[in-house]
Design a protein that fits this description.
Elements lengths: L9 H5 L3 E6 L23 H9 L1 H4 L3 E5 L6 H7 L2 E3 L2 E2 L7 H5 L3 E7 L16 H15 L4 E6 L1 H12 L4 E7 L11 H16 L5 H12 L9 H6 L4 E4 L8 H10 L4 E2 L9 H14 L3
Parallel strand pairs: 6-7, 7-8, 8-9
Antiparallel strand pairs: 1-5, 1-6, 2-5, 3-4
Helix pairs in contact: 2-6, 6-7, 8-9
Length: 294
């Protein structure tokens, strides 16, 4: 989900930085999956999902996913989101606990991205933003979900934008909180973070190829904007968006401001970060998503 841990490493950027929302229906049609990996995905009676799972087995293998049907969460969820001490007790932070807030109204599907948290996957020379988007779409296919909202914090904002590019007919709205981008001064921040992440991966995995990692890094972070899409796409993005600009090195203010200028008809919430803005932040997101819920 779009709640980040507090440490600014690529490992933590990838974990719990992105969520997919679908409108709740009757209890009979609720998503039943909770705290599962690929090996738990094949549920009896879910014929459409089973077909999709078989078709995309290699994409989903090793991904860890959480589906939240209410605001009640386990201690494990609270620790993963990084801004809650335990269920029912909140540590003051710069943004809402979106899993708790949004699961009152929506099915919230959160996942550790491949090779982050408890997820594992291949790393190939041709991997990039499209690889993560394919994981997200494979999961939605498996769950039998055609259209959905997305909410992404930090690197999750770029995951959202890539989905808007690859599946514009499926993403009904996108909240871009604290979007990442190329900082005008600290230009090596993300390649440097990637190098640290790659070193950690090499220490626990013998199957990784150095040239593949180098190519993967280049595919992810060689751009000069939000990395995942170019400015031409931003100008013609068909998906309704809400931008909540950042103000630090990984989330440059200039990136948020440029997205606000380029994205057609986007809504912008500038004063959103910090305990003083929690209610305004929550209300803006809920109102925006409700307006664009089919």
């Amino acid at each position: 989900m779009a709640v980040m841990t507090k440490s600014f490493t690529l490992k933590h950027h990838l974990k719990t930085s992105f969520g997919i929302l679908t409108k709740k229906k009757s209890s009979a049609s609720k998503i039943k999956y909770n705290h599962f990996t690929h090996h738990h995905l094949q549920k009896p009676g879910a014929s459409h999902a089973d077909i999709k799972t078989r078709r995309r087995r290699n994409l989903l293998r090793g991904l860890r996913v959480r589906s939240h049907r209410s605001a009640v969460r386990t201690r494990r969820d609270a620790v993963a989101s990084g801004d809650v001490a335990h269920p029912g007790r909140r540590i003051a932070g710069p943004w809402n606990d979106w899993i708790a807030v949004l699961s009152e109204t929506y099915h919230v599907v959160a996942m550790d991205q491949r090779n982050a948290g408890q997820s594992r996957g291949d790393v190939a020379a041709d991997h990039g933003w499209h690889t993560y988007a394919a994981d997200h779409l494979a999961l939605m296919d498996h769950l039998g979900v055609d259209k959905f909202h997305t909410l992404g914090g930090c690197i999750g904002s770029s995951f959202c934008l890539k989905l808007c590019e690859m599946a514009p007919g499926r993403v009904t709205a996108a909240v871009l909180q604290n979007p990442i981008g190329l900082h005008p001064v600290e230009t090596t921040y993300f390649p440097d973070s990637f190098a640290e992440w790659a070193d950690e991966q090499r220490a626990i995995r013998s199957d990784l190829d150095d040239k593949a990692l180098e190519s993967f890094c280049n595919n992810m972070f060689s751009g000069d904007f939000v990395f995942c899409v170019d400015r031409d796409f931003a100008r013609r993005c068909p998906t309704p968006t809400l931008v909540m600009p950042g103000d630090d090195v990984p989330h440059p203010a200039a990136t948020g401001q440029e997205l606000a200028r380029l994205l057609p008809g986007t809504e912008v919430l500038n004063d959103w970060k910090g305990p003083a803005h929690m209610d305004e932040q929550r209300d803006a997101v809920l109102t925006f998503l409700a307006r664009h819920t089919p």
